[in-house]
Amino acid sequence: MSSPAAPTVTPPWLDKGDNAWQMTAATLVGIQSIPGLMILYGSVVKKKWAVNSAFMVFYAFAAVMICWVGWAYKMSFGKRLLPLWGKAGPALYQKYLLDQSTIPSSAHFFKHGAHKGELETAMLQLAYPVATMVYFQFVFAAICVILLAGSLLGRMNFLAWMIFVPIWLTFSYTIGAFSIWGGGFLFHWGVIDYSGGYVIHLSAGIAGPTAAYWVGPRLTKDRESFPPNNILLTLAGAGLLWLGWAGFNGGDPYSANIDASLAILNTNICCSASLLTWTIFDVIFFGKPSVIGAVQGMITGLVCITPGAGVVQGWAALIMGILSGSIPWYTMMILHKKVALFQKVDDTLGVFHTHAVAGLLGGLLTGVFAEPTLCNFFLVVTNSRGLIYGSGGGYQLARQLVGGSFIIGWNIVVTSIILIVIGFFIPLRMSEEKLIIGDDAVHGEEAYALWGDGEFYDSTKHGWEGSTQHELTPTTRVKPEVTTDS
Hints:
This protein is 61% helix and 4% strand.
């Protein structure tokens, strides 16, 4: 006789639908990094940097996980230590992880007997366990670190990267997360960041170029010519990033509710409009629609809608998409070539333009377009309104500007301090020898067997022309001359 199955433990507060959606949304965000950005980074760089670029993503994802459950989750979403920081502590114990999760709500109240103006955050109970919340917030922390890596591809010492990841997570990411999301001072002040336009994208878009300044540039040869080694794989990685954004923005109502549906639809509206706008600008000014340009436009649209995905209407998402496909296009394609600082800082993938410019733009536009009824759906920003909705809207725009300014200032200062300190002990940049060789020198591995580094096939270098060892003799591919009719 078989023994009876153990009973399923389902506490009365658990909503299986919400729990299932939240874990699914978290996994979609995780897929954006592993394999999404891993594929994108590994294919959009020169062949000699494919392994190193992909491995920076792979390492960071694992390192953030251990730091997150070890101390960083509670620093971001735990009890208050400072107005901008939570108390560190592990998120590893069953009793804690299986308890009901909570988030800060907008129902602020005065502490009993507290000084005037001192607020305590009311906590709203969610319909799933803390373990789900820890997992959900982990993938956001991981992708933030991975996004800033886009500024450093092709030259950062991997050992320095291994040390940088946990330190930057601890002293930079957790500050932004707690200040805006976890009940810190910007949360109390009413700054709206629906899903990470400030906490993730603006942080990465500022920290990445700042780190690039301290690490130093790529080889001059690499800066002048840095062709993607596989554009089709770049599109595959970009596609995973795009579809994964359904979890990125759709998971931040913390429930499978109507606001999640609106957030996902707005995300795709803005992304599509931005991609098309960027492509149209490429055709108008450069005569050709660029695939890499379309990917950049896709990213800026996704980033721009993130701060307000669930609190703006569809027509506003369309306007945000047009602006996110044009303003970052201008800063990257026109302004970048004219400003000396942009030329001095070697931001490999243009993370400043795609994430800092687009993230700040999205945050400010949220201050313009945030619709009061939709704000009330999103529990942590109730009673807010954008500039176009009348009285009080100007204050929201001001809050958005101040919130963005804090994230910018903090990331410049803290990222600089971290890298200066690390640089005292180990080099931040690879040696010249490794920079010349690439993956084989750094890891002893190469992405795949191919001749050259983006050159056309030359049988005198790569083939066996006239050799008897091969039945089929490869023929030389000669790059065709480009002629211009007078």
